[in-house]
From TrEMBL:
Signal peptide: none annotated. Keywords: Methyltransferase, Transferase. Belongs to the methyltransferase superfamily. This is Class I SAM-dependent methyltransferase. InterPro entries: Diverse_substrate_MTase (IPR051052), Methyltransf_11 (IPR013216), SAM-dependent_MTases_sf (IPR029063).
Length: 248
């Protein structure tokens, strides 16, 4: 099976159309622990820019690090964002030059120990590294059993990093490079029209890999048709997990 972390760009338009924006509370948590200033910030694994746009409204200068140019083309980023097409592990910034580094739904795909070490080097005293991501979702209401059955089909296609590398708090603590590590957790409810719910599912790497072997776009059309029969909207219950490391 192909490495899904290399294939996100093929779904770039889907990410832009269907991935919801991150809530402001996430960035409020970041700002509450950044005491170095709001001059320079970096988004590692920026993808189609959902979190980058938030960051650009809070910091004067933002750099989006993303290896797949197809995703960046869909991002529509503000003028104060600089784009660098490279992997997070190869990014380079001057020591003690950044106020914040984030990674939104991407840290589990990275060499976590190396990224932690690099981020701690780049940060100013009082700066923070904050990776966060949605955890396994649930679906409320009549569609719940249907999603449980579909997830059982997707499960063999889930990359092990989606299981083994999701303890962000442990990764930051084990790195030993931050003065303190604070856990973050929030639960969101997204109520989406049936078509948008089916579109969101089509952005999941494991669902796309399953679809490649089971009808391609016809599979996602069947998901959309089934969800429509359940009603006009689908409610996703999504835990957001994360951890924030502070530079002493």
């Amino acid at each position: 099976m192909a490495d899904p972390s290399r294939n996100f760009g093929e779904a770039a338009a889907r990410y832009t159309a269907f991935r919801p924006d991150y809530p402001q509370e996430i960035f409020d948590f970041l700002l509450a622990h950044v005491t170095s200033g709001r001059l320079f910030a970096v988004d590692l694994g920026a993808g189609s820019g959902q979190a980058t746009r938030n960051l650009a409204g809070l910091f004067s200068n933002v750099t989006a690090i993303e290896p797949d140019g197809r995703l960046v083309e869909e991002a529509r980023l503000p003028a104060n964002v600089k784009i660098e097409l490279k992997a997070a592990e190869t990014a380079e910034f001057a020591e003690a030059s950044l106020d914040a580094v984030i990674s939104a739904t991407a840290f589990h795909w990275m060499n976590q120990a190396l990224v932690c070490k690099n981020a701690a080097c780049w940060l100013k005293t009082g700066g923070a590294f904050f990776p966060f991501a949605p955890d396994a979702f649930q679906v409320a209401g009549d569609a719940s059993d249907y999603f449980t059955d579909e997830f059982d089909k997707w499960r063999p296609y889930r990359d092990r990093r989606l299981v083994d590398c999701y303890d962000y708090e442990a990764a930051l603590k084990e790195s030993g490079v931050f003065a303190s590590v604070l856990p973050y957790r929030q639960t969101l409810r997204h109520q989406l029209p049936s078509a948008a719910a089916a579109g969101l599912i089509s952005t999941f790497s494991f669902a796309r890999d399953y679809a490649r072997d089971h009808g391609g776009e016809d599979y996602f059309q069947s998901v959309k048709d089934t969800l429509t029969r359940f009603g006009e909207t689908v409610t996703f219950i999504v835990p957001i997990i994360g951890a924030l490391g502070v530079k002493a």
